[in-house]
Amino acid sequence: LHRQRRLIAHLTDATEAAQQTAHSWQEAWEAVEPHLRKAGSVAIDTRHRSLSSIIDEAIEAETSPQPDGVVSCGLPGWDQVAGRFCAGEVTALAARPGNGKTALALMAADAAVRLGKAAFFASLEMQSSRLLRRMAVQRTGRAGLIRRGMHSDHIAAAKAERVKALGSMRPLEKLLSIGEVADCRTIDAIESRARLLAGGSVPLGLLVIDYLQLVWPSADTRRASREQQVAEVSRRIKLLALELDVPVLLLSQLNRESEKEQRRPRLSDLRESGAIEQDADRVWFLYPETSDSAPEDAETVTVVIEQAKARNGQPGIAKRLNFIRPCVLFTE
What we know:
The chain is an alpha/beta fold.
């Protein structure tokens, strides 16, 4: 009864805030959102779990051949080396622009939905139709590849393969959800959408955020330093992963220092905040192989994926991948 009264009080405050005059929808939402957040916190169960129930859960996770909440990144060989995505964990995938962050994230989302698990891809820099076209190209591989100078018949055949792949994704209606900038600009919007999907008929199996530095913080920290803003978003993403018990693939930018010094990236190269290194359970880097002598316009280049941090695994491991640029596809 006490929790019900608190819920009514917070919703009443939200209603009063919504009725106040605002110059824009953003201002109206910023006035209402703190009260809705407090209302949502009322639903959190504060009772303590017994040690025996936690031990039973740990034993089940150790003995289950296919634990719940575990999904692939789309690269089976790397899964064996670094481990799959686990529920409640945040994996930060960091790279410089053009090195394949979004491509690998799409492969992970596709791997999740192929297993019948729901995936939510929050894209803050690309339209949803463009993302689906990229996924279709990944599915078709070289059969859907269009090269300069190709005969018109071959171009038509490649486009037909892409259209076929797009059509084959219609059954994913309840599994794949893509949020665009208008829907997922703020961390509050991402949290709301993720909670909604987590309570759906198909449990949420993977959350992808592309990418951290583009996510707006809450209105409370808009005037704080940029480092504090990124730290707040990073921490709330980690708490969201724990709350919903889903794996999160969080894309992030690297600064230019590794390129300037011509070396492999370090954790200190994560852009704008050290909180990413602190909050993420794992940090992966994608960077070009320095010994790769392929020309700049080569279709296939060698890229290294490195696990720089692993809270529950082995750090410092790396693997070479082939990145087929026109197909935006990684192969082992």
